[in-house]
Prior knowledge:
The complex is a heterodimer. Chain A is an all-alpha fold. Helix content of chain A is about 35%, strand content about 0%. Chain A contains six helices and no strands. The mean pLDDT of chain B is about 90. Chain B starts with 8 loop residues before the first helix and ends with a helix. The longest helix of chain B is centred in the C-terminal third of the chain and has 21 residues, at about 360-380. Chain B has an eleven-stranded mixed sheet with strand order 1-3-2-4-6-5-10-11-9-7-8, sandwiched between helices. Chain B has 16 helices and eleven strands. In chain B, helix 6 (about 210-220) runs antiparallel to helix 14, helix 8 packs across helix 10 (about 340-350) and helix 8 (about 290-310) crosses helix 11. Helices cover about 35% and strands about 15% of the residues of chain B.
Amino acid sequence: MARSRLRDFCQDRTWSQKGEPASSPKKGEWIGADQFRLPPSFSGWFVFHSNTGVAQRPVAQAISSGKVIGLDQKRLKELEELTGLSLEPDERETLKTDLDCLERFAASLPAGPFGSQDMALLEQRDPEPTEVASLDRKVFWENTPVARGGFINIPATERKKKDPS
Amino acid sequence: MSDYRRLTMQEALQQHQGGGLAARELNSALLQAAKVENPDLGAYTHLFDHDPGLEYGVLAGFSAAIKANIAGCGWPNHCGSQLLEHYRSPFDSTAIARLKQAGCGFVGINSMDEFGMGSSGENTRLTQAVNPWNHDRTAGGSSSGTAAAVAAGLAWFGLGSDTGGSVRLPAHFCGIVGLKPTWGRVSRYGLVAFASSLDTIGVLARGVSDAHLVFQVLAGSDPLDATSKRSHYDQTPLRKRLSLKGLRVGVPEELKGLDLERGVRQDHEESCRQLQDQGASLLPVRGIDFAGTVPVYTVINCAEASSNLQRYDGSLYGVRKEGKTYEEVSRNTRTEGFGAEVKRRILLGAHVLSAGFRQRYYLRARSARRELRLAFRDIFSRVDILALPTAPGAAFPLGSRLNDPVRMYGTDSLTVAANLAGLPALTLPTNLDHEGLPLSLQLMGPEDSEKDLLEIGLVLEKAFKFRQRKAAPWQKNG
């Protein structure tokens, strides 16, 4: 019961439906993690945390669109702009090598039934959790950045409407 | 008195009952030793003048070392970063508040890899800790200073955080006990966020019973952390088992294909023999691709870190570099404040969360993570615990992996699986390798099995006799 409440709560949000924003982003644009979407049965995933009591500032503005393939200099420059980092040329060169290497490393994610088309299948197979972190909504809302208006990408009206308190 | 630094808290209490010095008196000597030895060891960035704790409570008389990403009111909370070098927390984390309530005192704040991003303690922008067993070797990371302090007898125990092995790896490198609890079992309120779905506060101690004593204080639900578990942790003492008869221990078959140092492999075989000698039955299990967990972890931790660290823009915390516009202030602050490893992870995290790349990396990593959890569930329906090494090798030389991030990330190959699945794990020191560096055994159990792991650990600790057999690091270093 608590689990389904929590799931409904996490998924019933216009800004996190299926983890995608309302408008389709262009390639290279930052989308963000599905931090507010609780994967079935994983009570340990819920990262909507209050541990520092401070809102996560959404990553700046969208970067310029355009075709981006791999981690070339142009892409690196875009990422710098996106993340608010400015690298020296030699630092950029070193980091580019590292990032190229890491990108290849990340691309070595295990093969197998991990494609997005299998997501639904995986969710079906995912068994019930043995224990569920139940949610005291009042405490939850009082102690999360949303309650303080921290997430500036959520329209205030929407926030007000959804706030159960 | 001279050997008090080898004592566990339980042993100190027993000695006091037998007419020995009280913990409070031993504690003063320990604080003095910390002041003298810290400049060489680099375990602490800040030592407190005098913080003896309360007169009562289960931890009264004992002092702890605290990793610099756990908030204590008025304490430095620098996370090993220049950006937060002078930042002091205005509040107590739940973990620190609970230690204070239990009467605990505090020795100081430890050095660590910047924001917990590292496996060697070398990614710090402030003081760097070295391994107490050999000062040319890494102390492990990211809770490097905490482990070094506990191993060198400069604190009774320490609090660290474990995102991909940051408690267990330094425990392994420094020859002490490291407990990484189930995700959500210890409140994260006041733990500076790195990768929130992986972060846990863990315990570093000289003995299993000490780890249990501290863990009992920390464990439990917390209204300030909506992700903490609601169920109460069993507060009864550890049962002293006479043997491990009936225990089914899984030994992952995948270990055979991993690039482990010969000493580590031999030590693991010896540890498995000890398990059998104690009455446990060993069963080979398959299903966890340890090598494959590292890229999954890399993608997920970078993605979450890039989001979590976006808050450091010079407007709320720490150092602020001047600029004409908000963007300029933010860019200057972040560029100068963050170190190379943090920048690397932020950039990679932003990359894997961008359109056109998210599907390829982040969503696949998430699916792989879910598959890993199912694999663990299947394995734990057949065995009670898993037994594996903590790391592929013993403590490596300082600087040897700094220019090779992929190799450095490989250090975590045996630890990240527990974080990805949110499971508890316990690292126990077993022996020394041919170079005199500590090795360890890692026990991994299903969700909420900390107490079982600790009880099993208690039996194995007696069998391994690590502390009884081996010279302490400070004795070794003369």
